[in-house]
Specification:
GO terms for molecular function: hydrolase activity. The protein is built from 10 helices and 8 strands. The protein is an alpha/beta fold and about 300 residues long.
């Protein structure tokens, strides 16, 4: 990053490092890190200067990161709201406890913003972490994205519609690839076409008058190739909000393309379970995820084996 945006972000990162150190020395818990705008000035396509017009990224850094892995977390909310705690900061805490850096993304939402703004925000987040991997203590090829529900659609779209960056861009961030190195998709929206689409996500991402062609262009299962990053999927058969077939369609597309994928489907469980601590039949799914991450080199195997989801 260059210019004022980097100075603000670097200052916040230094402050967070100092407060984490203070916490480790028994001075009390560190305050939550401050969200940082993804662009130093107005974001592309911004319609104003209110909080809803400013996409942000909040860095949560662990005390140790042996695999130098980072995960950008995209909360769900049907492209209308964001579940910033259950599918945001709670996920960051889970990742930090297992030695992984987390970056919670606040992306712009409908009905004020429509496609392609949301994808631009996600791509900018990936590029930002990659451009400043050294400052965050992460590796440029260990940057994944974890999305829930509509945030899962955003992550799946980032994993199927990416670019290598612009080598001649004046902004160093724009020179970076927007491809995530792996995907975690929790009860994700995948398709925006009948019969399995989530109507609210389609409405708030594409607008009321989306054509079938536009819906197809933003249905992630239609854009999987062998270059799509490895993916882990979790969903429940009983989900009445986002049909489980969304996950099945993406997994099937991954298998057909020869892209690595692992899917875990559970019979019982509603939509929006997060880490599923309150669901005895589901609460083990994050531990299965931890083993997948460790097996691919994105989590310390000791952390995956010894830390259990509450």
């Amino acid at each position: 990053m260059s210019g004022s945006g980097f100075e603000v972000l670097r200052g916040a990162l230094l402050a967070m490092t100092l407060t984490l150190a203070g916490s480790a020395e028994g001075q009390g818990p560190a305050p939550a890190p401050a969200p940082q705008p993804l662009w130093a000035g107005a974001a592309p396509g911004a319609l104003g200067t209110e909080a809803v017009d400013i996409p942000t990224l909040t860095a949560f850094l662990p005390t140790s990161n042996p695999t130098k892995t980072a995960v950008i977390v995209a909360p769900g909310g049907g492209y209308l709201n964001l579940s910033m705690k259950k599918e945001g900061t709670d996920i960051a805490a889970w990742l930090n406890a297992r030695g992984i850096a987390a970056f919670v993304l606040k992306y712009r939402l409908g009905p004020r913003y429509h496609n392609p703004v949301e994808l631009q925000d996600a791509q900018r987040a990936i590029r930002t972490v990659r451009a400043h991997a050294a400052e965050y203590g992460v590796a440029t090829d260990h940057i994944g994205m974890w999305g829930f529900s509509a945030g899962g659609h955003l992550a799946a779209t980032a994993g199927t519609q990416f670019d290598a960056g612009k080598a001649d861009a004046s902004d160093a961030i724009d020179r970076q690839s927007s491809r995530p190195d792996f995907l975690v998709l929790a009860y994700p929206v995948i398709t925006l076409e009948p019969p399995y689409m989530h109507a609210g996500s389609r409405k708030y991402l594409l607008g009321d008058d989306a054509t079938p062609e536009l819906a197809a262009s933003m249905s992630a299962e239609k854009h999987v190739t062998k270059e799509t990053p490895p993916a882990f999927l979790y969903a429940t058969y009983d989900d009445k909000t986002v049909p489980v077939m969304n996950s099945v369609l993406f997994y099937e597309a991954m298998v057909k393309a020869g892209a690595p994928a692992e899917m875990h489907l559970y019979k019982q469980g509603p939509h929006g379970t997060g880490l599923a601590a309150g669901f005895p039949l589901l609460k083990g799914w994050p531990d299965v995820l931890a083993k997948w991450l460790a097996g691919n080199g994105w989590m310390d195997p000791a952390a995956a084996a010894n830390v259990t989801t509450p």
